[in-house]
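re: ur msg from earlier - yeah i can do the adenosine-5'-diphosphate complex, just paste it... oh wait u already did. ok heres what im feeding in:
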Amino acid sequence: MKKPYVSVEGIARRYGATTIFADAWFGIERGEFVCLVGHSGCGKTTILNILAGLEPPDDGVLIMDGQELSGPSLDRAVIFQSHALLPWLTAAENVAFAQGCKHPGWSRAQRMEAALAALQKVGLAQAGDKKPSELSGGMKQRVGIARALSLAPKMLLMDEPFSALDALTRGALQEEVARLVTETDQTAFMITHDVDEAILLADRILLMSNGPGARIAEVVVNTLPKPRTRATLHHMAGYHPLREHVLDFLITRSKAFRADAPPANWSPRAVPEVRL
Ligand SMILES: Nc1ncnc2c1ncn2[C@@H]1O[C@H](COP(=O)(O)OP(=O)(O)O)[C@@H](O)[C@H]1O
Ligand SMILES: [Mg+2]
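and the outut:
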């Protein structure tokens, strides 16, 4: 069988005798948007950090585009929950800094040109010379998005990137990310607490059971047609059953799942795939 573009094969995290999560097997196809949903503490950020190469797994391996991954790389750009911009650089310089890492031979002018083009794509053409402290939360997050996408990474990783923003800004940024990711056929992996955000953005939603001893318990295929928008999502046929299914998981099934006595149809390498 052909491996998916990104293949996560049996990764685990343990601290002493405590297994935070284990036996996480999943794939991400090229151009696919996968969301990971689960309660606090189950190990979502750890999984993302492992995908980013920021920490190694205790078990298992990661393969992307046919190569085993170890350590961080510009192939995998991360958008963090807090913007993680360098405060002493302007918005454009922050993006240009990343460009300099990707293209060490480029002149400052070339890096700044690429940075301004990237800022323009997120509607920040006018804010390039502002320092992070002069930008709103939403604008800072936009700079982070511009910086990550300007690297044209093989995989974009996002850890609750909009959770600190007000609802209006969050909605606008979700749609912007949806548009940019679709335009560039970007492969993406995102952690979110927001069920609607997952339904808006994801092609597939991975549901993680509660920790310790968490597992990927279920995979939900999002069959709602694209493009999807915040304004029309809740009018789409199939939206309500999908939303209820994910909410039911978070409210009951995430707690009930026991790795030592899993449901009969569950095994780590054949997680049930739900299509509503
Ligand atoms: N150094 C550590 N020792 C013991 N437990 C830890 C340590 N670091 C993190 N954890 C635990 O690992 C779990 C997973 O954390 P994290 O990946 O951040 O979860 P999530 O992103 O799903 O909220 C948490 O329950 C946290 O308490
Ligand atoms: Mg987290």
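cool cool. Residues 29 and 66 are 12 Å apart (CA to CA). ping me if u need the other ligands too
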